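Fold it.
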Amino acid sequence: MPWAPAQYMKFSDHRLRPALDLLNRIDVANPAEIYDLGAGAGNVTRLLRERWPHARVTGVDASQEMDKAALAAPGIV
């Protein structure tokens, strides 16, 4: 079943809350590499990059539609 990024983003606030809770509990100063598995539209990937700007951050999702949406979003390379 293909994912619809626009529909997914309608609930981004609810989907983001657990990730923010987890992100706030990570006690790592300078990771070299970070992988965001199941990255969806890249919301958490972007937050990881903001928190650790010197790390190599890679977002991966099984949905090509979500990968395309993430790559089109600001702050995602």
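Residues 34-77 form one domain.
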